[in-house]
Structure formats: C-alpha cells, structure tokens
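Researcher: We're teaching a course module on how sequence relates to structure. For the next exercise, students receive a sequence and then see the predicted structure as tokens, so they can try to spot secondary structure elements on their own. Here is the exercise chain.
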Amino acid sequence: MITQGAVQAVHERLTEDLRVGRYAPGSRLPGERELSTRLGVSRTTLRQALAALEEDGALERSAQRGWFVPRQVIGEPPSTLQSFTEMARSRGLRPSSRVLRQEVRPATFEEADRLAVAPASPVLQLDRLRGMDGVPVCYDVVVVPRDRAAALVDADLTDRSLYEELRTRCGIAIHRSAYSVQADAADDRLAALLGTAVGAPVLVGREVAYTADGAPVLVGVNHYRGDAYRFEADLYRPGP
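Model: And here is the predicted structure for the students to work with:
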C-alpha cells in the first residue's frame, strides 16, 4: 500500500538532489527502476513523487525518453541592459566564459561603419562560449576598436565580464545597446559548441553598444540556445 508519507519523503529527497545540483539542468534522471532501487521504494511510489515534481515545474516528462531536469531559461528584464555575467548572477547562477579567439585584425566595411572608424582599422575580435552553471548557453562574437581597448588585447578574459573589463581596464562605460533578435537554426559547428542538435532553434542577437555620449564602442553577435534564452521588452502604443 502506498502512503502519502512515503511519497512525500521521496519528493523531498529528489527536491534536495535537484537543489544541490546532483542532476544538472537539461540532464536526464536515471531510469525508474534504478531510481526506485536507489531510494528503496516501489516504482508506483516513485512515479507519484515524480508526478508531483512535474506539477511543481521541477521535472519534465518524455513518454519515450524518461524524466528530465528543465534547462534554466534566462530572460532579460524589460528595458534593462545587463551583461551576460550580470544576468546570470541576478538569477543565482554561476556564469562562465571560455575564450575561443582573441586577436587583432582589420575591420570589415560593415564593422567600420557601425563603429565609426576607418575601414581596415585594427579591431579586437573576441569569440567566447558563455555558460551558466556549467551548461553552454551562448556563443558570443564581439568586436571593439583596438585603439579604445588596447588593454584587452593580451588580457586574460576567461570567466570575465567584457562590460566590466572595458570599464575597469579601458575607462569605457557601456550606456545603451541597439539590439535586434532573430530566429535561426544551429549549424554543425554551433550545435557542437552549444551541445544541441544540428538544426535546433537558436536566437541570434545583434548589438551595437554606445557610451553615454553616443559613441559606438562595440559590435557583437550572440547565438543563444533557443531552449535557454528568452528576450523580453516593454512595448508602448503612441498617443493619439
């Protein structure tokens, strides 16, 4: 006979496992047979506890594949410009950043136009794989004029906020960002970087960041996993 106390005990045990990160966001739980043996309960009792966790939003069920921990979905507060690092920390998540490319090269015509510099001017390109709690979330490519960010050319930017490094090392404070978002599908390379399937949905964010006096200092392209990012904005109708 199944008792409510037994179901509650399993519910509390699994809740604690999720809280301490025993099962990472996006991961699949062990099979019901293994879990019931590990917890010393019947599969019927286990299923009731799992169903309760599903109602709580702590787990997701797939009829073919089993039980999964939902991925952390991040979203930008309306009308608030935050760096990736700030966005993660505000949600109690641990940000990470792995540098894939950090080199000086000539600016393209488009970059030069957006940054208000001469074509072929030297710029620093920074490619990074950004993560939250160890889960890859974003592939980020940023370009800044070398003359304005010379201190970053040889700096160690692993697990660093670029906004913060620009402020502390270069005296540049980002004030606003012109940002657009569009949907796309992950190609082979992007899928491998973000740990998702080829053709999986991604959100592509393109930005030009400015200082308070209106000077453009950064252009960037961010590729977010479609199941891990949500963009929010306040929209207003004009008056009559």
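Model: If you want an answer key for the exercise: The two ends are 67 Å apart (CA to CA). The chain has two domains: 4-68, 74-230.
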